[in-house]
Design goal:
six-stranded antiparallel beta barrel, 7 helices, single chain, 31% strand, alpha+beta
Length: 228
């Protein structure tokens, strides 16, 4: 399973060593970030198949870091774990325990069934905000009735967005978008960079798309929403 790489987010050194040992024992490569700010930078510079997140690090981080943390939790497969220092044992979060009380089995399932099925990717370099806009999307720029779908954005950036959809798009596929709230309804051409299918992981299903062409007025409307 050397083709799978995990990013571990944990502040405590002892817990980090335990998590790293558990992951490498399964035969998977890993890096360690000591904060969610460091995680964001590492995930921007490198590609990962999933995150192993220490619960105490998440609970005790700042409000600003929690925003970073939860955005990534929606974009990557994540397993939440806790290090019990007295027992020298890794435990699962209550949510994970409901699926499997055995930590070793849960970790192997997480890597083999969730991370392996998730194409390794990095975080975008341009910041996005959690802005929800109503939109129509189609693979046809003329938006015919039988090929026009209603949806909304999970987040928005100056160069792209995360689109909620149940459709399994192919990487590199071209789609066209019209924002319901925009005064300029000119179709925006975009390219699918990645797709998160429904039912594969507990992430929000959808597609990450990059804008390819839009009008100057549309650029200004997006910049205003992002407060740029």
């Amino acid at each position: 399973m050397s083709d799978v790489k995990i990013l571990i987010v944990v502040k405590d050194d002892e817990a980090g060593a335990a998590y790293s040992h558990a992951v490498t024992e399964v035969g998977v490569a890993c890096d360690i970030a000591r904060s969610f700010a460091e995680m964001s930078q590492m995930a921007t510079d490198n590609r990962y198949n999933g995150f192993l997140v220490d619960i105490l690090t998440l609970v005790r981080c700042s409000k600003e870091e929690k925003v970073i943390a939860y955005e990534c939790i929606n974009l990557f497969p994540v397993l939440r774990v806790k290090w019990e220092a007295r027992q020298k044992k890794i435990k699962l979060s209550p949510l994970e325990q409901s699926f499997s009380p055995d930590t070793g089995s849960a970790l192997r399932f997480f890597i083999e069934n969730r991370c392996r099925n998730f194409p390794a990717r990095s975080l975008r370099r341009s910041p996005r905000r959690q802005i929800n806009l109503n939109l129509y999307y189609s693979t046809d720029p003329d938006f015919p009735a039988d090929n026009t779908h209603k949806s909304f954005t999970i987040n928005l950036g100056s160069h792209g967005l995360f689109l909620h959809t149940m459709h399994d798009f192919l990487q590199g596929e071209t789609i066209w978008i019209r924002f319901l709230e925009f005064a300029d309804q000119t179709p925006i051409r975009a390219t699918v960079r990645w797709s998160q299918p429904w039912g594969v992981t507990r992430c929000i299903p959808g597609a990450g798309v990059m804008f390819e062409a839009m009008t100057k007025k549309q650029e200004q409307e997006i910049a205003k929403l992002l407060d740029l």
